[in-house]
Each structure stands twice: as structure tokens, then as C-alpha cells.
Amino acid sequence: MIRFIFVNGIIAAASLLVTSENASAADVTCTTTLYFCSYGPDDVVTVTTTETADYAPLQGFGVYLNGSTAKLNDITIITSGNTSDAIRTNSENSMFRANRLTIKTTGKTADGINLSSNGNIDGDNLAYVKDFADIEVNSGIGVRANNFQNANANTVIILPDGTRVRQTGTGTATNAAEGNGYAVYAGNRDWDTNGLGLRDIIAGKNNNTLGNAYVFIGANAVIASSMTNGHAVYANKGGLVQLGDGAKVSTTGNNAYALYASREQQGNYKDNVRQGYIYLGGGATLRAENSPIVIRASGEGSIIANKVIETPVIADTHDGNDRVQGLDKTATRDTFGIFDVIGIMDAIDGGTIALNMSAGSQFFGSTNAHPEKAQTSNIFLNIDGAGSQWKMDADSNLTRLTLSGGATLTPYDSSVNLTNRVLTGELLNKGGNIDLAGAADLVGDVLTIKGKYTGADGFLILNTTLNDDSSATDKLIIDGDTTGNTFVRVKNIGGTGAQTVNGIQIIEVTGASDGAFKLKGDYIHKGDQAVVGGAYAYRLFHNGLGDDSADGNWYLRSELKEKKPHYQPGAPVYEIYPQFLLGLNTLPTLQQRVGNRYWSHAGNLMLSQGADAIEPYAPNSEAGSYIETSGIWGRVEGSYTKMQPRTSTSDATYDYSAYKMQAGIDGMLHEGETGKLIGGITVHYTHGVASVWSPYDSDLGRGRISSDGYGFGGTLTWYGDDGLYLD
């Protein structure tokens, strides 16, 4: 049997259309004030209304519940009347449940889901969608959970993974009784005086909201709004919105934030004025196209944070009279996720933002905790993992920034080539990177940290032109105390090296300079890392010289030795290299190459002696020289050479071992009355290894050169009968 949502006879037939797979829908009647005929599960149902919503007569809403329960399978609700909410409750103990829900409202201030109450009883108001939710409103609020007058009452909306909520209209958002312009909202409207007496109202009491409002949305939700001041996700006055991992939240209206948690009041009366909560179950993509601020937490206790409470579990048997279990804003656990954020993170008047960004997160923007305000606000950013980056495009202030696991902070300014940024707050560099070098080979960026800096094996990356004391350089200024260990990488940009005195200042510390900055260089010298600038070596030193000997700053300094510049270890290697190559290129003598294939005059008598006769026999000595006209030959050669040059720019000594293989073929090209011309083709292979010693690389022990050579060549040799030869 298929059951239907319908309406009683108060509404004219033209004002409500109910369709389903059952053609007898028109025969179904209702006897209550609900648009619902049964508590059983219903099949595919479409509800379309065109009337302006009203309570007397009851009309215009898609589904209206007043202390009742509606359970459906698949429902589509379309409304076009003004204030015609698709789903509207008006009492505690109301429950709407569906497996699949599609909503579209086009009327003025017509909400998608609007849970509210005029009652004052202990009970919950619940809308639960299990599998699929697609909600689109024009000028209303997409999802709206209002809290009640009763502290023991809760409004709860639970939506599944992949939920889509879109507010598409134009105009300016308002948070009145018939509010509009927000995509997801939890809290209470402005100037809520329901249940108040005249005396309270005259006294200025206007926020009589003691209950709690909750909106839970699963992972990978898409949430968007388009009105001026129309925030995509908005929580205030005791409201809590919790988003699952991977949410995409965006706004296109002026001054509209992607996330907004607020503690609000009207006038000076402060009864029951409570904070808003936005909890994130993981990462999110956050955009505010026409607002510089993308996230704002405003008011004491309001919070936007990577934490969650457990989403309530709704049993199949749950109905409107059952209480929703597990609603405790304080029973939280921390979460992490991948973020993609563009804009300003803003905490003001006591608000708090606390985000845990996992590997691959990108934040392009700035932070502002408004230190000029009397009320302390807090921003905590924990950026972790390789590939994570905060591209800080404006001066920022926060409570604490933690960089870990390879995450990077990069100051940025799109309007100029060089940046000069200020970050106010505590910074913990726990295996992260502060990158002033960037991708471009520009020198002169400055980052000032106004606060405590703690290094925990993090990195500072700088561009520097390695010359004398006046060299251009990126610079880190710490206007506060330093502790811990930080590694420093220096990229030499165009420096040819020069003698320094005090050195090139790359880190300035105005507070207690107890932190250690350690250079990660090109080689080790005297137990310290050093970087190369031309023929000079630079090491990192704490404190200056003379009057600056206790200034707490850090300098790159090239050293002097015996009035000679302190060469980097590559200098001896480069000096020896051509001599080593020359040694590998030596050629064999004629005798080494051809052996005993030529004997002059009487010397050929030696060929005829011995136990083994040589064929053909050598001619008599009177016959002249013996010249073999063709042959194939090969030879192997090994050598070890130790060199101590009398004069060397880098005072280098070296030794090398060489191994050579040579082969060739010879043949007679010409024979004349006075001699023969022999030609040949040769091939060569050589391998050599050299060890280089110098005072300038004493910590390393030696430099090393390894080389392989291949070649081919030709030979011409004239052998004269009179003993003269030319090779």
C-alpha cells in the first residue's frame, strides 16, 4: 500500500497538488491539521503548493507538523508561495523522517526545512534524512533549526553524506521571524520575544532562547548562498552546525561568510544570550567570493573548530515522542582534514577559530584575532604535512601557529616583487618550513614574528646574495623570545663571494635569543655546515663582533686564513681536475704500442735465436732492417701517481689511480726503396680516480674525482731501411 502526504479540507483543491504512483490519491482524506495521512513508510511522493503560507486557514506549506510524526521513503517538495516552507514544524515532539528528500522553494522567505516551536514543553523537534538530500531555496533559508524557550527542548536536523543545500536568490539576508538568505542556520532569530511578558519586553529582554538547535550534515556536502550578508553556514545563540569531512562551502553575496559562528544580542539585556558553534569533522573547501572574510567567530565562546560530537543515531522505531540521545556540545573529539581556504580568518570579541589542517592543505589569505579589542579572541592554526602551505598575503595575527611535518608558511604580496610581512602571535616550527625564498630568485623578503618563536627541527629558507656584509638577503625578524632548534637553508642568488667582517645578518632577535639556528649547507667545515659563495665559504654565527658581540642576532660570515680567503672545498677539486684529466690522456710509446715488430740491422739476429724458431726466419743482418707489415695488438695498463705540486692556489695535493685498455690494427700503406709506411686504427678506454687533499676541506678529509674516458684514433709510422723512423 502507498501512503500519501495530503491536507485536510481547509485548503482548496487548487492550492495543493499531491501525486504518486497511485492514481487514487484524490480519494485519500485527512482529518487532522497535518499534511499527513499515516505513520507508516511511504513510497515516492511529490508535493507541490502555490499558496502563501498561513496557519488560519492552514495552507502553503509542503509538510506541516505540529507534534506529529511523518515517515517517508522518497519525497519531492516544491513550493512557490511566500513564506511557504517545504517542511515546517511548530511544536516539540514533531518528527519528519525520509530516506530521500528533494526540495525546491521559489517564494519569498520560503525555507527548505524550518524547525521551530511556539510551545514550552520538554521534547525534541527532529528532521532526519537518511540517504539523500537536495535542497534549493530562492530567498528563504535552506536548512533552519531554531532553539526554543524551554532549556530541556532540542531542535535537531540530521542530513546524510553528499547533501546539497543551495540558497540562490538575491537581496539582503535577514534573521527575522521569516528570515532569508542563509544556506544552513542553527540558533534563533533576532528579537525573539515569544513567551515574554510586557514587563520583560519593556525592560529590553529579547532573547528568550534556552533550548538548543543542532544541524548535523554528513561528509562531502555542498553548501552555497548568494545574498548580501547571506552566510552559507551560520550558528548563533546556542546553535550548533556540524559538517562532515570534505564539505564545499561558498558564498557569492557581499559580506557573506562561508562559516559564521556568533554570540549575539539586541540592546543591553543579556539574559540567555549564548554562543554559536560550528564543528568540522575534517577538512573543507571554503570560499567567499565577494567578502574579504571567509570565516568569522564573533562573541565570547563562539567557536569554529576541528572537533565533533557524535551524530545521534536514529532508530527505525523512533517517533516524535522519543528524545534524541547524545546531544552534548562538550563531549568532543579533535579532527583533522585537508583544507582549501581563500580569504581572512577572523575572530572577534572573544570568538575562537581552531583548525587542524592535514597534508595537502592550502590556505591563501590572512588571520585577524583583533588584538586591539578589549575582549581576547583566539585563532589556533595547526598546519601539518608535506604539501600543506599557508600563503600569507597580508599582515596577520593569531594566538598560535604550528607548522609540522613539512608544512610551509610563505609570506606573499601580489602587488610587489618583494614582501615585508608581520605575523603577530606564537609560532611553533615543528618540522615545518618558513620559506622566504619562494619559487623566484628574488632577494630582500622580510618576515617579522611578533611573539615567541620555538624551533623543533623546523626549517628557515632564505635567498641571499653571498658577498660582503652589505649583501642583499631575505631576513627573519623575531620580536620576541626564541627557543629550540631550527635549521637554516640559504640559496645563493648571484653572489660571487667576498670577505665579511661582522657578516650578513639573516636573523634578528629582539628578545631572549636562546634558540639555536643551524645552517644546512653544502659541506662541513670545522664541525659546522657551510655554504658556498664563489670561492668563499660562509658559516652561521650567533652574535656579531665588537659592540655587537651579545646582540643575539645570526650572521653568515666568511672566514680569513693566513690573509687568504677561506676557499670552499670545491676550489681544490676544480684546480686539480684538468691536471687529472691530462694524466688520463697520456699516450703509449711506439715500442709499447707495437712491441718487437721492428729490428734495425744486426738487431734482427735476436729473432733467430732461441728454442722456438720464428717463421719466417729473420733475414741476415746484411739484408738491413726487419719490418713486420701488419698486425693486431692490444694492451692493458695500470698506474698509481702521487703529486705534490710546488705551487697551488688552493694548496692542494692529490694522488690518482688509472686503468687503461687499448687495442689496434696496423697495415702497410706504402713500400719504397728506402722504407715502409705503416698505418693503424686504435680504440681506447680509461678509468681514473683521484683523491684531493687541501687545508680548506680538512673536515671532510679529501675531495674525490672519478672519470671515464673513451676514444679512437689513428697512427702513421715511417720505418726507414737505414734505421730512421717517424711515428
From TrEMBL:
Its signal peptide is 1-25
* Span of domain Autotransporter: 625-727
PROSITE patterns under this entry?
AUTOTRANSPORTER
Gene3D superfamilies per record: 2.160.20.20, Autotransporter beta-domain (2.40.128.130)
Record-level GO cellular component terms:
outer membrane
> Which Pfam families does its entry note?
AC_1 (PF18883), Autotransporter (PF03797)
Keywords from the UniProt entry: Signal
Q: Which PANTHER family match?
A: C-TERMINAL REGION OF AIDA-LIKE PROTEIN
The molecule here is called: Outer membrane autotransporter protein
